[in-house]
Amino acid sequence: MSSHSLRARLTWLIIAVQVMVLIPLGAISYQREQHEMVKLLDGRLAQAGRTLGTLIAYNKRDYSDADAERAVTLATEAQRGAVVVAVHAKNYEPEVGFQAYDPHGTLIAATANLADLPPPVKGEHGFRDIEHNGSNWRLFTLTNRFNLTIRIGERAENRADITQGLILEHSLPLVIGLPLLALLAGLAVKQGLRPLDKLTKVLAERAPRSRTPIAIERTPDEIKPLIVTLNQQLERLEDVIEREHRFAGDVAHELRTPLAAATIHLEGALIAKDAGELEYTLHNARRNLGRLGRRIEQILAIARLEAGAAAEQRTSLDLITLATEVVEELAPLIAEKDISLSLTHDEPEVRISGHEVAMTAMFRNLVENALRHTPERSRVDISVHRHGDTVVIDICDDGPGIPAELRERAFQRFERGNDTKASGYGLGLSIVQRAVELHEGSIELLDNQSGQGLLVRIRIAVDPSGGRIG
What we know:
Blueprint lengths: L5 H53 L6 H7 L11 E3 L10 E6 L5 E5 L14 E7 L2 E9 L5 E7 H37 L1 H12 L18 H47 L4 H32 L8 E4 H11 L1 H6 L3 E6 L5 E4 L1 H18 L5 E9 L2 E8 L30 H11 L3 E6 L6 E8 L9
Parallel strand pairs: 1-3, 8-10
Antiparallel strand pairs: 2-3, 2-6, 4-5, 5-6, 7-9, 10-11, 11-13, 12-13
């Protein structure tokens, strides 16, 4: 499974949790059982020593040569009267052994494997670990009420075998169980992620441009928010695609009209019979090509803004300078219609932090729209004033205006409002609105205070730094 797979991550997380829980539990259980085993074996050893001492005390008068021949074998110690008990390697007898001393410290009985163990020192009692004949022993020494000293021992290898058994008992389930748990966890995760597989299948089979909401039967609660958000995103995406298709069709239509008109006039110029007719057709062709150029410029301005023209770094801009430059750029159009245009401001500079391309496009389209919708020999007034932390930009004209019920639609692309004969192209206010949005501002369409025409009011926050560098 890929490391980027959700299924793999969940499976490994489950396995990791199991390992983190089971291994410490196994270790704790092993330690406790080992501790209990040591206590149990030591208890048995002590009990065996006490029992042995009692038996020897009650039967010490019954020793005879005949009994010795039947029950014991003699070693070197037998010459001193000690009885040595034979042990057989075929069973577990070599694992345990004992010594018995009378009150005088004389060895009276022992197993062969401990017969040559040096006698206990004075005061020796209880448990201790020793090494004898190359083996480690757990030894218990006691002196009973008959003053017999009993030493009984068990080889450490015997306890090590039990310990190994405990280790095997606790580790084998982990060795066998963890892979099985991993397999079962993988199957469980796969089953749990089936709703995601269904969602993937539904999306893969979804028809293009479909607006049908995604729905999956018995959707888990954890997946429902994802499906809701996905449906919302798909709906917004379809809206965007639909608007772009509509925009492309509108652009084609808007460009076709002036281009067709210019073509007709150029064809007329080719067949013109006199200079006056030729001049007239060429003049009209030039005018239509100018309209086409302005329309293309507006479309490019929208494209730049929509693509995030504003992705460039913001700079401190003087709105008075920008407005003056736009007025100078449109001076030919102002002179052509004999428009009286005024630019008023209450401060030499009014600065904002913004994008020069967007703000220039905003001023150009506002002024150009006002000029084109205003009759000849009328007025267009531009004012830039600061009110606290806000810049208020007003542009008034004496044109036909826009009825209140149509003002919301006026910001839509290619919407001309109430004046279908105007030479505007339905993009100006859309460009203006987008530029204002990029600067977190607001725009309103109001009635001109004179009662005739339109007032466009824009509010944008001033540059708090005042244009200072550093």
